[in-house]
Each structure stands twice: as C-alpha cells, then as structure tokens.
Amino acid sequence: MTRPLLMLDHDGVVVDSVEIFTTSFVEACRRVGLSRVATTDDVLALFAGNFYESLRELGADDAQIGAAMSRTAGALRLAMPALRPFPLMPEVLAELAEARHLVIVSSNAGDVVELFLRRHGITGVAEVAGAEAGRGKVAKVEALIARFPGQAVYWFVGDTAGDMSEARRAGATPLGVAWGWHGRELLEAAGAERIADTPADLLAIVAPELTADFLGTG
Ligand SMILES: [Mg+2]
What we know:
- With 218 residues, the protein is an alpha/beta fold.
- It has eleven helices and eight strands.
C-alpha cells in the first residue's frame, strides 16, 4: 500500500540554518555584484514570494543567481558541522515516515539537503526535490500531487510566506511552522491553513493518529 504524500520545506523547518544561510548568501551576492541584497533582512524578504523570482525582480540575471547559489551551497557544505536540526524534528520525521511518503521540497541544493539528513541520521525522508529539480516550488509540488491522486489533503509544511503562497498555487494545503524564518504573523497573512508552534503540534496536525504513540500515551 502506498503511504500518503507529505511535503516539507528544509531550511527553517528541519534545519536551523537562518544565520549561516543569510550570512553566506549576503557574501555571495556581494561577490557576484548583487548589491541590493546586503543584509539579513534583505535575504529574508526574498522569501516573501518565490526566492528566484524575488531575485530577478531586484535585477539579478540567471548567471548571477546561479553563481550566488553555487557559492552559497559551497558555504553551506563547509558549514555543515555547525548546522543542527530543530529539537524533536528528527524524531517527528522518523515517526511520520512510518505512515507518510515524506518529500523535502527545497530551493536549496538537493545534495546539501541529503548530506545534512545523513549526517544527523534522519532516515525517514523518501525523496528530496532540491534546486536541481526546478527553481519554483509550484511545479515540483504539482508534479508530486499528480503522483499521489485522491488524497483528501496534501499538506505542504513550510516556514516562509513564499512557501504558503506557492503551496496554495500548486493545490496543496499550506501549514506554517512558527519556529522558522518568517514567524506566525507573516505565515498567517500569506494564507497558512494551520500553524504549528512545535514539532509535536506539527505531528498532531498532519498525522493525529500517530500522536498518542509519539507521546507515549498510546
Ligand atoms: Mg524554508
């Protein structure tokens, strides 16, 4: 029997990467001549919509975007030992993996995501759809939903306003996590159906049948 699909973003949902990502990306933008991305807030604002479209709106061309992303992916690989999962997320993912087909849909490089998961012994993720699988999340989410027809709900778990709006456009139901890059207010304003304040909340929303087991009360 096929497990139902559950889609998650990586940065800000699974991995606590905001500081390393924004610092690396600001430096990468400086090196490729994208002067309009100069602060952490500038980087966070790019995630109000689709990250790549936001960069193009600031005047970045494809070559600059590609160069900035590959520099950032390089910096993230080097910084890997300093990156940590959010507390309880590995346990929640392991629990979910028994009952759901987990796919991480990320703007980050797929190999960076996979390296992180391996390093932290996070084994429940069935697939990673990273930047190499497409720059927009809408097309990737649509393609995944098409492979899992007939579900009553297709949760997309994200931490930015852009995640919420891209998930809606793709026909998924956006669930925002309050521990990520944008926080509850921005996520609600962007159309989040539900907000999880903790990983245990996340489990209770997307797989209520597993919660008693996870909390040891079943
Ligand atoms: Mg994110």
